[in-house]
Amino acid sequence: PAGTVPRRRPRRSEMGRGLVLLLLALALLAAPARAEGVAAVAEEVKIEVLHLPESCSPKSKKGDLLNAHYDGFLASDGSKFYCSRTQNEGHPKWFVLGVGQVIKGLDIAMMNMCPGEKRKVIIPPSLAYGQQGYAQGKIPPNATLIFEIELYAVNKGPRSVEAFNQIDKDSDKKLSELEISQYLKEEFARDGKKRHPSVHDEILADIFKKNDHDGDGFISAKEYNVYQHDEL
């Protein structure tokens, strides 16, 4: 999502709160997770817990929808290259954890984190921008990065059992075009933003193009659950 520190290619700007209301539906467009092998490299990210709430629950896991503020610094000279509080009128950033919407080092660093927790993390180049760096973000090649993170919310992600069951009105464990169409209409109504009618049709067509892998006109539980953090 937007507004987060991008991967090597820039992404769309900050997701507004209104778009978060649509995320359960729009996330059907998301590519499969790219965080395979995280456990094998987790020791390369250094994590220091700066503050831990007395009640630390729920803890974040892959596929959860997080809301956080974070500042990014270059380890080489301590200069700040990113501050979420100065973008999008200072609103915290929303993103899905563990699916490549932020750099891999942040996906690793923010696992098992609870609302109210603060961390300082050190991310090596191999889990950030590597040899290429990121010129647009003023990050040189082979840069080690430091982030100070404050997590505000941990919510069920867009591919949770709850989200699937909410769309699956007839409980047949597959999503029809009619069911997803109705869900989109309901989310648009909740969001309250005016959109051209073609937007609904375009999103619906794209959802099926990218998720109906066997072409049977339905999105099965297996096709839907690409984050694999819940069993459907």
From TrEMBL:
<feature type="signal peptide">
    <location>
        <begin position="1"/>
        <end position="35"/>
    </location>
</feature>
<dbReference type="InterPro" id="IPR046357">
    <property type="entry name" value="PPIase_dom_sf"/>
</dbReference>
<dbReference type="GO" id="GO:0005783">
    <property type="term" value="C:endoplasmic reticulum"/>
</dbReference>
<dbReference type="InterPro" id="IPR011992">
    <property type="entry name" value="EF-hand-dom_pair"/>
</dbReference>
<keyword id="KW-0256">Endoplasmic reticulum</keyword>
<dbReference type="Pfam" id="PF13202">
    <property type="entry name" value="EF-hand_5"/>
</dbReference>
<keyword id="KW-0325">Glycoprotein</keyword>
<keyword id="KW-0106">Calcium</keyword>
<protein>
    <recommendedName>
        <fullName>peptidylprolyl isomerase</fullName>
        <ecNumber>5.2.1.8</ecNumber>
    </recommendedName>
</protein>
<dbReference type="GO" id="GO:0003755">
    <property type="term" value="F:peptidyl-prolyl cis-trans isomerase activity"/>
</dbReference>
<keyword id="KW-0413">Isomerase</keyword>
<dbReference type="Pfam" id="PF00254">
    <property type="entry name" value="FKBP_C"/>
</dbReference>
<feature type="domain" description="EF-hand">
    <location>
        <begin position="199"/>
        <end position="232"/>
    </location>
</feature>
<dbReference type="InterPro" id="IPR001179">
    <property type="entry name" value="PPIase_FKBP_dom"/>
</dbReference>
<keyword id="KW-0479">Metal-binding</keyword>
<dbReference type="InterPro" id="IPR018247">
    <property type="entry name" value="EF_Hand_1_Ca_BS"/>
</dbReference>
<keyword id="KW-0677">Repeat</keyword>
<keyword id="KW-0732">Signal</keyword>
<keyword id="KW-0697">Rotamase</keyword>
<feature type="domain" description="PPIase FKBP-type">
    <location>
        <begin position="63"/>
        <end position="155"/>
    </location>
</feature>
<dbReference type="InterPro" id="IPR002048">
    <property type="entry name" value="EF_hand_dom"/>
</dbReference>
<dbReference type="InterPro" id="IPR052273">
    <property type="entry name" value="PPIase_FKBP"/>
</dbReference>
<feature type="domain" description="EF-hand">
    <location>
        <begin position="155"/>
        <end position="190"/>
    </location>
</feature>
<dbReference type="GO" id="GO:0005509">
    <property type="term" value="F:calcium ion binding"/>
</dbReference>
